[in-house]
Specification:
With 450 residues, this protein is α/β, with parallel strands linked by helices. It has 16 helices and 13 strands. The structure holds ligand F0G. The site of ligand F0G has 22 residues, from helix 5 and helix 14.
Length: 450
């Protein structure tokens, strides 16, 4: 197949370059903009679309068959779809932890609470390192390995670094991560050490870490694995395919994603758009992005209608999305506009309550993921999501990433101003080890008096 070739298209100028010509910071030196991976069959390559266009019906069957295979790349929920991300010369050398294959759960109690008929959660926190980053990391780190890099690097609020460290270890590459000191959840910090990366805590925020990383990769043969790397997005588009497959090729009406550095919403947008272009589905869902109120530059840009996004000084306990100057804002803005979605924000109490509600479904997620539910409530109030619509929340990280946050909620240190939150609080009960004490506590709980 002639599909093993791709170009990188600058999203600002539409100029194409060969993959080997890309600068170390993955920005077009002329426009300062990011690139997108473009295949011979991509919609943007109008002249070539007739050539080598993947066949939707055949691929649906092939992908289903691969589920029975014992081959690692067939078991991966990213590489199973490799026909739509032909970025490697040799797919069998993909560095995989069998990522993807994540559940699409229903949230019946939350749906009822909100008056929705159909609410689902695509739980990307069920990936090998506990976040959606694995789907992108398997793609971009495999490219790094294939191109012979010995070192990889990223700046991170914690999940990217955990994923990168794991995949680098699998591939035998060295990894250096830059994280903001004191502003990442412990689960994530421990992962990058566990997987053997060089872990640098910089005395700055995420945006400061990104700057430092830029300097380092410019002067050294170290491969940058932040989400400005367009191959990350090729992996992160695959949950769009998986969602459609899990819904028997029905498209949800609305997909709601958290927004930090703003790559993921655009990756999923690319996934759905390609599926439609290739005839797998007949429409794309609305894609809405929700930010934390303390880290809301895209929300502000949507409200102000300025030409350029104005960075903010970010602060939120949803540390995964504590980002003031998001690299991929233009890509995300285009996807929101193209799909008819919206950008909203959620304050700290709204996030904490939403997280508890997702926890109470027996699912759980990290705080940054819970912004999706907090945002959905607002979109419903505004009439942007209607009761009969099929809504999917994209949960990005596992609840165990940030147990400190959960414990603080149950100790009434979060969302204390929200009366509804009280019903969800389950602080631990400390008792003497005797039966009558335990029985008294249990009876009080059964009677609903505590
Ligand atoms: N949710 C979680 C759990 C995240 O870790 C991130 C980003 C996001 C949402 C936002 O995704 O950046 O594509 O808009 N975490 C990055 C990191 C920045 O370094 O782990 P985005």
């Amino acid at each position: 197949m002639a599909m093993k070739s791709h170009l990188l298209r600058c999203i600002g100028s539409d100029e194409r370059i060969a993959p080997k010509d890309v600068a170390s910071d993955f920005r077009d030196p002329a426009t300062g903009e990011l690139y997108e991976v473009e295949y011979p069959w991509s919609e943007t390559r109008k002249a070539d679309t007739a050539t080598a266009r993947p066949n939707a019906a055949a691929l649906r069957h092939l992908w289903a068959d691969r589920r029975d295979s014992t081959l690692a790349i067939d078991q991966s929920g990213v590489w199973r779809y490799r026909d739509l991300l032909p970025i490697l010369q040799d797919d069998e050398k993909a560095v995989t932890l069998r990522e993807g294959n994540t559940p699409l759960y229903d949230l019946p109690r939350t749906a009822k609470l909100l008056g929705l008929d159909f609410l689902l959660a695509k739980h990307q926190g069920m990936n090998p390192t506990g976040s959606f980053k694995d789907t992108g990391m398997t793609a971009a780190l495999s490219v790094a390995a294939e191109r012979g890099y010995k070192w990889v690097a990223c700046a991170s609020t914690g999940n990217t670094s955990a994923a990168m460290a794991a995949y680098a270890a699998r591939a035998g590459l060295r990894a250096i991560v830059f994280i903001p000191e004191g502003k990442i959840a412990w689960g994530k910090l421990s992962q990058s050490m566990d997987y053997g990366a060089m872990t640098v805590q910089l005395k700055t925020d995420f945006d400061g870490c990104v700057k430092m990383l830029g300097e380092i990769v410019r002067k050294n043969p170290i491969y940058l694995l932040n989400s400005v790397n367009p191959y990350r997005l090729e992996g992160q588009k695959t949950p769009a395919i998986e969602i459609c497959e899990q819904l028997d090729w029905q498209v949800p009406d609305h997909l709601i994603v958290p927004g930090g550095n703003l790559a993921n919403g655009s990756a999923l947008g690319k996934g759905f758009t390609e599926l439609k272009h290739l005839g797998f589905v007949d429409r794309v869902p609305k894609i809405s992005v929700i930010q934390a109120e303390g880290a809301n530059p895209l929300f502000q840009w949507f409200t102000n209608e300025e030409k350029l996004l104005a960075p903010v000084t970010a602060d939120t306990r949803a540390t995964a999305i504590r980002i003031g100057n998001p690299a991929s804002w233009r890509k995300a803005a285009r996807v929101i506009e193209a799909t008819g979605g919206w950008c909203e924000q959620a304050n700290e109490s709204e996030i904490a309550l939403a997280k508890a509600q997702i926890g109470a479904e027996g699912i759980g997620c990290e705080p940054a993921s819970a912004v999706t539910l907090a945002g959905l409530k607002k979109l419903m109030k505004q009439g942007r999501v209607l009761p009969g619509e099929r809504v999917v929340l994209l949960l990005t990280g596992h609840t165990l990433k940030d147990p400190e946050y959960t414990i603080d909620f149950h100790k009434d240190m979060l969302a204390s101003d929200v009366p509804e939150a009280a019903a969800y609080r389950k602080p631990p009960v400390v008792l003497e080890p005797n039966e009558s004490a335990v029985m008294r506590a249990l009876e009080a709980e059964m009677a609903g008096t505590v």
